[in-house]
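Example record

One chain of 252 residues, shown exactly as stored in the release files.
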Amino acid sequence: MELNFKHQLGLLCVTLLLPAMCTSQDTFTCSRATFFGSPDCYGNPRGACGFDDYGKTVNDGSVAGVSWLWKNGSGCGACYQVRCKIPQYCDEYGAYVVVTDYGVGDRTDFIMSPRGYSRLGRNDDASAELFKYGVIDVEYKRVPCNYGGNNNVVLKVHDRSRNPHYLAILVLYVGGTYDVTAMELWQEDCKEWRPMRRAFGAVFDAANPPSGDIKLRFQVSGSAGLYWVESKNALSFEWKAGAIYDTEIQLG
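Predicted structure tokens for this chain:
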């Protein structure tokens, strides 16, 4: 049985323009940022990455939807330092945001939660002024993720999984500056690794998964290029939807 995932982006799709590189020695990239409407200032639980309610409150709600940085879903969970460029209002460090959604705005690379956007300002009054702009010039760079506790790669059995007919795995946390680009499960009867489909965002799935405990491995993209990493833990044959799965793997 294979399920058809649907999600609402709720973000205005306009045009996509790749940003120019800044001249900063810190390798920041110039772009623009805006924010989306949220009555509680947190993230969107229907985000395209598939994080659901976790994507609303992760990193204390400082999250963002991105355009080309989404990378067909492999950019989900990536972390960025974003700082704006209006000296009288903008904090020197800026905001630390986690990618949980896809969205394209008016030449923007970041559509931030109000909670994340407010942290671009020096103080509450400065943040209030930044909200009046609506869209602001920013610079950003990829930074290591460090919101995952023990920093192990953490997976989740997606809530729509149904043992034994359908298994979907959500990449919940990777850490560092790594992206998971593919996932496979071990097919014991054939003695081979079987590819899983990227269903959407950070979710990989497979119909009719192997019976018994399930071994998983994932392809990682990082400074060392592309390589495969096998989880130190097998997924128990009694796996259940919603279960959190610690791979006991730390990257880097």
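Notes: The two ends are 37 Å apart (CA to CA).
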